[in-house]
Amino acid sequence: MFRNYIKIGFRNLVKNRVYTLINISGLAIGLACFILIALYIHHETGFDTIYDNADNIYRINTHVDVNGASNVYPSAHYPAVFDMVQDYPEAVNATTMYRMFFLSNAVPKVRYGDAEFEETKFYLVDSSFFTVFNFEFQYGNAAKALENTNSVVLTDAMAKKYFGDTNPMGKLLQLQDTVALKVTGVLKPIKGKTHLEFDFLANAKPYLNQFIGFRVDHAYVGLWYYCYVVLQPGSSPAALESKLPAFVKKYYPPRYTDNNARLTLQNIKDIHLYSDFTGGEMSVGGNIQYIYTLGSIAVLVLLIACINFMNLSIARFSNRGKEVGMRKVMGAEKQNLVFQFLGESVLIALMAGVVSLVLVRLSMPVFNALANVQLDAMEMVKPFNLLVILAIILFTGLLAGIYPAVVMAAFQPVKVLKGLHKAGHQKINLRKVLVIGQFTVSLILLIGTLVISNQLDFMRSKDLGFSKDQIMMIPTSSQALARDFATFKNKLKQQESIAAVTHISHNLGQETLPYLPLFVEGKEEEQMLPTMTVGYDFLETFDIEMLNGRFFDVEHNTDSTQAFVINESAAKALNWSDPIGRKMSFGVGGNPNSVVIGVVKDFNFDPLRNKVGPLVMNFSPVQGNVAVKIKPGDYQRTVAAVEKAWGEIETEKPFAFYFLDEGLAKTYVAEENLALVFKYFCGLAIFVASLGLFALASFSAERRLKEIGVRKVLGASEIGLVALLYKEFLVLILISFVVASPLAYYFFNRWLNEFAYRIDIGVMPYLIAVVFITLIALITVGYQSISAARSNPVKILRTE
Q: Locate the ABC3 transporter permease C-terminal domain: which residues (predicted)?
């Protein structure tokens, strides 16, 4: 009997090739989306689970109000975690990490012999680091690796980079050509995913104290340290967190307590997905909302595919009605028929499953680029994952086939052999509801795609308050260039195609500026203000308007050491109606004779997600970026001239540059990728929903054939009949639009609220979406409607 079911199943699949192809295509797309998103969710939720004590390791985050705005940092002051261990029995261990040159864009230089490299992932840590994080060692011992100062532990990749395949234990690395670090350990390749992105871990506290200018282990100065605390197993992090307000009051200086500073605990397994900070994360994090969004879409597309299968199966059951009747007459039980039809459904699901795995493999590179992850296709073929995927496929086949199987198996032989089952079936309302759900999802995705695209267009075209066109940005940490910048600048200014040259510490408009403590006139306590260092000709290079006073001038010797320029928002925040000449100095080692010499018009120094706030600028030697404003003309020749001037001064580091407008565009790559994800999934949802609409149109046309025949006999035109059939589906689209509109407004208005500068949604996205979906529906329904309208009434009514 089983062989007979398989034979009949294949025979029916081959006989109805079009519907078989549609079924397999719809299910394959739904399964591919589901499997791909499931792999992504598995990847994103697996961060920082590799540590034995992961459930008890927490990072200290700092919340503080800065000029009325709430700011959250993934860092804390150095002594905080160690004082917690001393004060609270729940805390049993602690460690910190400090990225070298955290306060600037300078990059640490590491040298071994003649090999010297800039290393962006160089961290200074405490001797307790490996008692908190149990990484495996290839060489060395975790307990002793950092017990002595001036010791360094390397990752496996860095060990091979500097020492090849030899054992590097005991060898010396030079840091900044001033500190010798002894290699005391090499880690094995990390198995798993972690938010800790490092290449070097050095115990160099004396060097850090020297670099900062004071003993960091006694100072609550600077939110520069990633701080981790280990709690007793079974301890409540909420209970410890409730004690931290008193801890802040006890240890923190007034500039924090007066600005509502508070500390929170975050389990390390939550860091990757649940971090939303003002700036300073160690690695690029994920987004739990992204997980929810993609997961919901994947489930919806899979459900839509299952619904399509149901609709197509029921829409075509009339072709097999007599088969069901004959089998029942010959003694087939209802459960036998259910088993047969479920078997055919599972067979289609298995075929779709094979196709879906191919689709996942082909689409994975695109998805990796969009989601900024590195999913491995080999994950699919791991035994456990294969079993899970097989279970999903089988469940999908059963879910998609159970409803049509039960319906068809319930046919009464007398009615099906007379053809009466076609008119008597009354389950169309359920399918209409399902199709409404399909198009509601499609409309929400389409409206969202349009809203996101409009917001991106707005951000690209918004006036940022500075010129972004024809400006070449040259990232640099070159000591040679810093020493000979005046010569380099003069060489460039001699080129007729170059209008201005300056330098700036940060990537303008692309990253959040650091907040530094400053003493300002009229305020008793230090103020935390965003700070940026710039060079002469900054205004000319970026076309920024001066409102009051003057800018840094090479003719004024004290400007390089005793001057600040602020923006108009800073003047307002400090309540300075006449800011020129006001005292201002850095809180740590600042010059008490420094004054404000000018006020510039507000410009968007942060990304557009943040509103323009206070800004303090001071002069410094070259660091971060050199900015070159180019006149319109032969760009290639100008770039070649700049590269030549670079090579004459900097002989060791290669020349690299980007144009500012391109860098600003890349700032919103997450939003760009989100827009692309919505476009792709929107297209898939509309395609799969169209298959469902095709099924419903097929069913509706067959159900109303006799009605159409009677209307044609009575003189109805083909155009009128097509319009009659279209009306049914246009009503469904209208209902979907009514349901989708408020949902789309709610979700995407919340998304727009994340931007300080945003568009109003307006009516156009809704109109475009409903018109587009209507056209898709008309095309989808058109074939069935026209075929039914052109049918011969004589043949249709012959059985009456």
A: 296-409, 682-793
Per-residue pLDDT band at 427 (split at 50, 70, 90): very low
177-191, 289-303, 578-592, 761-775: segment of lowest average pLDDT: 289-303
The answer to whether 704 and 760 have CB atoms below 8 angstroms apart is no
Q: Are 582 and 596 in contact (CB under 8 A)?
A: yes
Q: Is 721 left (phi over 0), alpha (psi -120 to 50) or beta?
A: alpha
Other C-beta atoms closer than 10 Å to the C-beta of 2 total 9
Task: Give Cα separations from 389 to 359, 373, 439, 592 (angstroms).
Answer: 14, 21, 28, 67
pTM of the model: 0.77
| Helical spans, DSSP H, in 164-275 | 205-212, 237-251, 254-257, 268-271
609: tokens are: 């997600």
DSSP label of 55: G
CA 368 to chain centroid, in Å, comes to 11
DSSP state of 204: -
- 3-class DSSP string for 444-483: HHHHHHHHHHHHHHHHHHCCCCCCCCCEEEEEECCHHHHH
Please name the residue that has the structure tokens 């290699």. Answer: 183
Whole-angstrom distance, CA of residue 281 vs CA of residue 264 = 16
Rounding to the nearest 10 degrees, give the CA dihedral for residues 609, 612, 617, 621: 30
| Burial of 129 (C-beta count, 10 Å sphere; 0-12/13-18/19+) | buried
Domains of the chain, residue spans: 1-45+287-425, 54-271, 440-460+667-800, 471-666
Cβ atoms within 10 A of the Cβ of 379, count? 13
Using alpha carbons, select from 688, 673, 634 the residue that is nearest to residue 31.
688
Closest CA to 97 of 222, 196, 212, 185: 196
Tokens matching residue 107:
């990059």
